[in-house]
Amino acid sequence: CSATSDASSAAAAYGDASADASRNALALALGLNGGIASSSAVGYAAPAAIAFGPGSVAEALGLNPGLSIAIAAPGSTVTVDSLGGVTCDGPGFAGDLTTLKACLQVN
Fold first, then answer.
1. Is residue 68 scored above 80 in pLDDT?
2. Which pLDDT tens digit goes with each residue over 17-67?
3. Neighbour count for residue 83 (Cβ, 10 Å)
4. Closest by alpha carbon to 90, among 62, 61, 57?
5. Is there a contact between 19 and 38 (Cβ–Cβ < 8 Å)?
6. How far is Cα 107 from Cα 65, in angstroms, rounded to an integer?
7. d(CA 19, CA 74)
8. Do residues 36 and 20 touch, judged by C-beta distance below 8 A?
9. What is the CA radius of gyration of the chain?
10. What angle do CA 39, 2, 33 make, to 5 degrees?
């Protein structure tokens, strides 16, 4: 895992994950039990990416101020991008409070 941030920000990563935050932002990434997660944030954004189980991928990109989250279950890819929207390819959830977009897929 890797986590990088500047002096005004905070980033945390655990497992197979990477988090990057700058310019007053927060980023969280958790890659658990075979999942891969990445989170990147700038300018008061606070995205979180959580991938749990084999073949799961969660990606969260925060470019606008606000909260967002991507949660991927085994075998799925879930993304949230404050400019491009949210996608759920397989079981998971993505939500972005800056754009009020979300997706939920249960199977």
1. yes
2. 999 999 999 999 999 999 999 999 999 999 999 999 999 999 999 998 999
3. 11
4. 57
5. yes
6. 31
7. 21
8. no
9. 12
10. 75
The Cα 55–Cα 72 span in angstroms is 9
Residue whose token pair is 């999942």: 35
Report which DSSP code applies to 93: E
DSSP bridge partners of 45? 66
Question: Which residues, listed in sequence order, are joined to residue 93 by a DSSP beta bridge?
Answer: 71, 104
Pairing of strands 45-52, 77-81: unpaired
What pTM does this model have? 0.95
* Residues 46 and 62 sit within 8 Å (Cβ to Cβ): yes
Question: Both tokens of residue 42?
Answer: 């700038």
* Order of strands across the sheet that contains 26-32: 10-15, 26-32, 45-52, 66-72, 92-96, 101-105
**Alpha-carbon gap, residue 53 to 45, rounded angstroms:** 26
Q: Does position 84 have pLDDT exceeding 80, yes or no?
A: no
